[in-house]
User: Fold these one by one.
Assistant:
Number 1:
Amino acid sequence: MFETIKYEVKNKIAWITLNRPERLNAFTEQLNREVKFAIKQSSKDETVRTLVITGQGRAFCSGEDLAGVTDDMDLGDVLRQRYNPMLKELDHCEKPIVAAVNGVAAGAGMSLSLACDFRIASDHASFVQSFVHVGLIPDAGNLYYLTKMVGHAKALELAVFGDKITAQEAFDLGLVTKIIPATEWSEGVEAFASKLANMPTKAIGLIKRNLKASWDVTFEEFLEKDAEGQRLAGLTNDHKEGIQAFMEKRKPVFKGY
């Protein structure tokens, strides 16, 4: 079904693996399209409660495959037609999405990681705002997310100088949730994703929805979103299970609905 990614659903987790290791998982039109389709499929699949995006081989994603860039390309149209639909699909997904950054995340590869909800990184991973080195600006939603994570001044510094930052530096900046030793990578990623997959999925989706809403509404408007979100959360079976487990002094078993 897929040629540039691997897709597998296992134990309530959808694993989306960028699979062009010979090109460091660089983006092509087909890769953009297949990632978009896999995210959409995961969003609709009721058995999926967490998504993990990672890379095959030694890189997470090195950005756009420059071998396919020509002088007559309209780079704005490339973003509108290829990257923007993929990023919108990510944004619309109300299940938790983990970027498992196994190696370098450069250019649009870094943008992809920023668009995910959580970034866990191998201690061999690195992040590079490589756009400036080819006379371009960070794209694919990069600065939209980056500024909110690290602030205006640091986002400008990272974008203008384009220096490589290590996993530890990214963690210190708040870009990375957790660093996992390369020797424990597979087990560590699965443990992190499994924890999310067994949490109240609908509540997580509502948390994501309200966090996004907080960026551009008034306080009064946000209070109403608080109320509506809590109304919806209160109707879930997971809420009922959480209350019952609390009363019975046991660990809740959430089903994701």
Number 2:
Amino acid sequence: MDLKPVTHVLFDMDGLILNTEDLYTIGFQKVASRFGKEFTFTLKSRIMGQQSEEFAASIIEGLDLPLTVEEFLTETRLVFQELFPECKIMPGVERLIRHLHQHKVPIGLATSSSKLTYDLKVQKHTQLFDLLKYKTWGSSDPLVKRGKPYPDIFLVAAAKFPDNPPPEKVLVFEDSINGVRAAHSAGMQVVMVPDPRLDRTLAPEATLILDSMEDFQPELFGLPSFSNISPISTI
């Protein structure tokens, strides 16, 4: 592995910080079931990281659903209004975010979610997400012209850091193939924490692939080691 020191960190959200990818699967399958279709993991892998209208169009085409993009989004939003507020933090993530914040490492959020769905997802985790000072919501930000796997969201997110770091100094955490490709296209290193069902050979652009965020060693990228501080309290 050719790992280089970084100074700034960007986090994806769905499936990386929060377990919302599981909730997306429930919602999409509920719609697909009405038409006798199955929302497969293969299709899920293709759409992860896309913006709202993009993934809706991909699912409609992939499953041949007799719905418009707006109809699909309207129907799934009703499901997600109930599911998203119950989402949980993924293992190891809170520890890392609090650690980086305590050591004054600039950290930000780069999610394809809209601001509306973001607010639904984080309502029980606002104290943690407040630590991610610089936020980009891909489906709501007019500067993000294209969703992942295009680099737009990470370039926009990195530009929000006041000192405007070069891409090679930014480390991205992702769980999806599209996210990994987007970060790589932006010229950034990317740590992937994928769904265990994912074929890892499909993400050759990943700088490092981990089974869990609990396995991440910050010092590998020149960041402060966990051993440098006393245990961090959680919410």
